[in-house]
Amino acid sequence: MEQEQAQQKYAEIEKALDRERDARANAIAKFSKVESKKNTFSHTKSIEQMIEDMRRELDLIKQEAQRAWLELGKTEQEQRDRMAYLQVEGHTIVDDVQVVSMMQKSTNQPFMKEERDSVGTSTERTCLHKLRAHTL
């Protein structure tokens, strides 16, 4: 009888041990799932942050490109205006220097009456204009 009781106790202890092992295995599995979800969430957050940073950078690049495009258009328009004025008037100012067209009007008139009286050749008039513009 004592042997039967010992076997019963042993069987009960075996069952308890199996339940503990199963509970431990379940706990480890749950912990692994939680860690996996945590890592996935962290990884997802990291990816979302990277995407957001890339979007911000793209917006900045777009703004910079737009500013550059507008500046290019403004510069081109200024150059076209300068060229048109040079063709019509025969002279213009570029970076604080007066530029005189080499192909002046067929009338070949000086720009100011005083110059017509005091300076005779086209080359002398051109030099005079450059000198006056530079000293201003």
What does this structure look like?
Mean pLDDT is 79; it is low at 110-120. This protein has three helices and two strands. A hairpin with a 2-residue loop joins β1 (91-94) and β2 (97-100). Helices cover 79% and strands 6% of the residues. It has two domains: 1-89; 90-136, no CATH class. It has helices at 2-89, 113-118, 122-135; strands spanning 91-94, 97-100. It has 136 residues and is mainly alpha-helical. It has a two-stranded antiparallel sheet with strand order 1-2.
Tell how many strands the DSSP assignment holds. 2
Q: Major sheet, described briefly?
A: 2 strands, antiparallel
Radius of gyration: 45 Å
Number of helical regions: 3
Element string (H = helix, E = strand): HEEHH
Catalogue the unreliable spans.
110-120
Helix content: over 70%
Order of strands across the widest beta sheet?
1-2
Task: Let me know the average pLDDT.
Answer: 79
Oligomerization: single chain
Shape type: rod-shaped
Task: Provide the number of structural domains.
Answer: 2
Q: Roughly how many Å apart are the termini?
A: 127 Å
- Amount of beta strand: 5-15%
Question: What structural class is derived from the secondary structure elements?
Answer: mainly alpha
Brief summary of the model shown:
The chain has 136 residues and is mainly alpha-helical. The chain is built from three helices and two strands, in the order H-E-E-H-H.
List the helices and strands and how they pair.
Blueprint: H1 2-89, E1 91-94, E2 97-100, H2 113-118, H3 122-135
Antiparallel strand pairs: 1-2
